[in-house]
Amino acid sequence: MSADLTARARSGTAWVAAQALVKHGLDLVVFLCLARWLMPQAFGVMALVNTVLSLVLVLSELGLGDALVQRHRLGPRTRDTAFWLSLGGAVCLALLLAAVAWPLAWAYGQPEVTTITWAAMPLVVMVAFNTVPQALLQRELSFRPLAVKTLLGSLAGALTGLGLALNGAGVWSLIGQQLVSAAVSLGLLWWLAQWRPRWRFSRKVAWGLLGFARHVLLARGLNIVASKVDDAVIGAVLGPAALGIYAVASRLRLALEQVFCQGVDAVALSAFSRLAGNHPALAHGYLHATRLAFSLALPVFASAGWLAPHVLPLWIGDRWVPAMGTLQILLVAAFFQSFLHFNHAVFRALGCPQRSWHLGAASLGLNLLLAGAVVGWGIEAVAWAYVARVCLMGPWGAATALRALGLGVQDGLRNIAGPVGAGALAALAAAALWQGLAGTGWTTWVRAVLICVPSWAVYGVWLWRQPGLLPRRLKRPISPVDSRTRRWVPGANRASRPA
Questions:
Q1: φ, ψ for residue 492 (rounded to 5)?
Q2: Is there a contact between 278 and 416 (Cβ–Cβ < 8 Å)?
Q3: pLDDT digits (tens, 9 = 90+) for 78-113
Q4: What is the pTM of this model?
Q5: Do the Cβ atoms of 161 and 174 come closer than 8 Å?
Q6: For the chain, which terminus, N or C, has the lower number of CB atoms within 10 Å?
Q7: At 191, is the secondary structure helix, strand, or coil?
């Protein structure tokens, strides 16, 4: 990896990390406030709308953003063609969304779903306007303007949602938050991007873009459908109130996952695409990225699962206590997913995105089978089915990515062995402290908070002192040869080693 690309990747990672921490942290605080003021029925109705809306929003981008980022050369005609192609597809999908609104409301027995779905139609078109300028900035690893527009949009949406909720708007505060956030972000993006489309369209270029994008689109669509199977099954069998409880637990899990894992995906695709011709460097970057995500996720999700039932009800109210058990189960799945985040970025960077939708199709079928089989036992059973799906599909996806990079399964296991060992020591320290504080008379949530600090201090110290583990190695540039130890990346092609 060149020094310039390394510097831009680090700067991009810093901006994306700052954006993720602030944006998703703000979203989490706002969500907790809305959960305190709104009833489970409101979140359940919104979750019913999202079973279709989330899929349409993914399809409206047509996978063209990744196609633009992945291309080595990008001319003006390609950019203009991608814009008009995305916009035309988004308009068609918005009309389709309007058409299915009434049948969706009839199927779930919730008339309010129709008007909310119609109100969400502008979101579909705004995604298309975002596609090309955002991809151009990502391609250049220019994540500062993207962070600015996202943070300001989130702030505007948060103020709107809170204001509507305080005035008794109910479920409309949730859709209003999304609309205002998307509109402000879109306006700022077009002001910062300094790019405008021209009236030109090439059918040949369009087919070339869709040749790559169709695999990305299919993979994302299948992943979205797989992730919404739980909501659809719960809404149809158990009703919107039960779905509202499950949706809140799922949203809290997603918020933590977005803060610490999801933000770096955009940087990963941009950096990996520039390294597609250098497999040893790409493999080295992949190993570093997965170890970083796994090392951060272990203390975060473990602490969240430990603290959630003791702390969250104090803020959002006792009516959400049934969601705490479901949240703890879903955090188990989020932890296992933390080191799988970069698999799809590797597939797209290497020009084989079809592997992503192969995994997505299998995941969809398995999730539908498991959720449908256990929904009669309640939302916690559905959550355990989600964990089972992640544990069954995760090793397949990880092994596929490692094989594509010329690495073996043993390289992947060795990569996460250090954090696993440190986590085990931290868990033992937590158990010992819990027993030691049992006779103090302190409340449960105070003991839970006090235990987290020394336990994860043990985790951090142990991890820091191990040679070759994070975070010390992250301070050195990513390259196929370690600049200090002069060791080659495990699993790299022997023929490409330096003489």
A1: -70, 155
A2: no
A3: 888 888 988 988 899 999 999 999 988 888 888 888
A4: 0.71
A5: yes
A6: C
A7: helix
